[in-house]
Structure formats: C-alpha cells, structure tokens
Amino acid sequence: MTALSGWHHSTRDQDDHDSMPQLPPIPLPPRSHNSKHGVYFILEKASLVAAYVGKKYQILNPDEHANFLRRKNMNPYDFRPDIVHEALLQIMSSRLCLSGRLRAVFIRTDEGILIKVEPQTQIPKTLGSFCNMMAELLQKFSIKSKGGHGKLLKLIQNPVTDHLPANSRKIGLSFSSPKAVQLRDYVTEANFDENLVFVVGAMAHGKIDVDNIDDLISVSGYPLSAGTCLRRICIALERHWKIQ
C-alpha cells in the first residue's frame, strides 16, 4: 500500500506533459557567469511515504492519518513530512536562494527515493498543499513549470553523487559530531573552488549516512531541527557573500 520505492521499474511515461502537474516558478536573477560560488543541499531520510487512504493517494502524516497508521501497526510519529516541508521553506525563502546562489536541493526519502528540486520551485505554504504536491510528484515523476520552462521537481536515479558537479565537498551536519564549529568561521575558511554541498537530516530521529561525507560538523551544543540548521547555513553564506 505504501510508496513507490520501485518507481524506476515502472513503464509509466515520465514525459507525459499532458498529465504532468504544473507550478508557477519563482523568478530568480540569472546566474553570474563570473561566480563559481554556489551551494547545494541534500535533505536526507525525509518522510514522504505515500499510500492509498480510501481511494485517495496521500502522503502519510500523523495529523491526518493517525488512525489509519495505527490500524496498520505503524507509529504515527514516524511519519513526519512537516520536517522536509519546513526545511524547503527555509531554503527557498532565503536571500541565498533569491539571489541565485542556490544550485539545487536534493531530497532523499527514508525509502530511498531521490528527488531533485530546482531553485525556482515555489513551495506551498501549507503542509496539506505540500503533501498533495509531493503525492502528485510520486505518481507523475515530475512537476513542470507553467510556461514550459522545464521541470521544477523530478524523481531521479540514485546515487545523488551522480548529480553533483565534480570537485564537490559534502558537509554533513550532526549534533553528535565531535567537530564543533561556528558556521560563520567555517564558511569563511571554506575553499570556494569546491562546490559546497550541505547534508542535513530531515527526520525526527536518527543520523545521516556519513559514508559519502567529506566533513561532519556540529553547529550547536543542542539538537536543532532541520529548518533551524538550514537557516543558520543560509545566514552564514549570505553574510560571507554579502547578500543583502
């Protein structure tokens, strides 16, 4: 009943433009040809589990589906799409994104589905609308921009490293890391000849996979939400790049 973890085996036509949902894009300034300075985000272990509840295909969340989940002997609080929703809102509303410095956001769900989100994607403000959009995405494989300017969200093949540029430095954030840093100092000392890729967990509990991480840092003596971590990263980069 759940999920499209085997979506890549489907014979559904991913380029079916007639049935593909559409979103209005956010207008962003053109990327400067002189600037190598940009950033990627990877949101790990996001809870975007879909199932048919009645006749409707929905993203499961504890507010709406607690009874359904209990009937299936599932803990409702393991299903937290609100975390990735908040994380995306923080990134997409940041001056970092609006200035054109964000290159892409990748979401890797706890079921292993990989999603690419383009910087001009307009994330719905309410959780319900966001969940509806993500359910559409899991069914249609992509959501394109109104006006025919390409796909704003799409399912892509793992691993995420295949979709990152060469010379990328992947930086994981974890409360348990012994390497405590001040983000402002960390980004100031970063080698910006490399592409910075920040990996943040989008789950209520657990740790990110550190197998492909180049550096693992802690930015607080207290556990922080994904949204708070991302806001701190964005502010540190905005200050470093003097984005007003």
From TrEMBL:
GO CC field: nucleolus
Region annotation Disordered: where it falls in the sequence: 1-29
Keyword RNA-binding assigned: yes
GO molecular function terms attached to this record: methyltransferase activity; rRNA binding
One record GO biological process: methylation
Pfam families: EMG1 (PF03587)
Presence of keyword Transferase: yes
UniProt keywords, alphabetically: Methyltransferase, Nucleus, Ribosome biogenesis, RNA-binding, rRNA processing, rRNA-binding, S-adenosyl-L-methionine, Transferase
Localization in the cell: Nucleus, Nucleolus
Compositionally biased intervals (Basic and acidic residues): 10-19
Principal location listed in the UniProt entry: nucleus
Domain of life: Eukaryota
Family membership noted in the UniProt record: Belongs to the class IV-like SAM-binding methyltransferase superfamily. RNA methyltransferase NEP1 family.
Full protein name: Ribosomal RNA small subunit methyltransferase NEP1
